[in-house]
Amino acid sequence: MSMVEDPAKNLAKAVDRIRDAAARGAQVICLQELFMGPYFCQTEDHRFFQRAEPVPGPTTATLGDLAKELEVVIVASIFEKRAEGLYHKTAAILDADGRYLGKYRKMHIPDDPQFLVKLYFTPGDLGFRGWQTPFAGLGVLICWV
Fold it and tell me: Cβ–Cβ contacts within 10 Å for residue 90, how many?
């Protein structure tokens, strides 16, 4: 899914794609990493922190309602604002009944000269977990490198 700068347009596009996937029989639908905007970690620009939100929060509420409506599981990668100055790259899991099941916060934040991920994200502190859904047991990770 290609993204634009406007998070609302990206969310609307993701909703359309989720509806399409569900109509084709998908039961577990995983959105791409940080789907609410273009991947921003290659430049230092503090205005990107404005994209961060709590998890659970507004995006998980919207996707939870959609998951319930379509009876699908959704895994969504969100720029999480845990507190001022404390941000995570997070995957939220929404069950087929719309419930927020939990989240995984990316634990390994690489130090790569082409990607400034350490500028934007704090290592996760929740460990590796699993969630049972009506369709499968899920273990969720966000890329290692």
Answer: 27
Burial class (CB in 10 A: 0-12, 13-18, 19+), 98: middle
- For each of the domains in the chain, give its residue range(s) and CATH number, in order of start: 7-139 (3.60.110.10)
Q: Does 106 participate in catalysis according to the annotation? A: yes
103 is catalytic: no
**Cα-flanking dihedrals φ and ψ of residue 53, to 5°?**
-150, 160
* Sign, Cα dihedral of 105, 107, 108, 111: positive
**CA distances from residue 72 to 21, 104, 126 in whole angstroms, order as listed:** 10, 19, 25
Among candidate residues 13, 33, 53, 71, the one labeled active-site is: 33
Instruction: Kindly tell me the sign of the dihedral angle through the C-alpha atoms of 9, 98, 79, 41.
Output: negative
Which pTM was predicted? 0.96
The rounded Cα 129 to chain-centroid distance in angstroms is: 16
Specify the length of the chain in residues: 145
Residue of 5, 44, 118, 143 marked active site:
143
pLDDT in tens, 21-77: 999 999 999 999 999 999 999 999 999 999 999 999 999 999 999 999 999 999 999
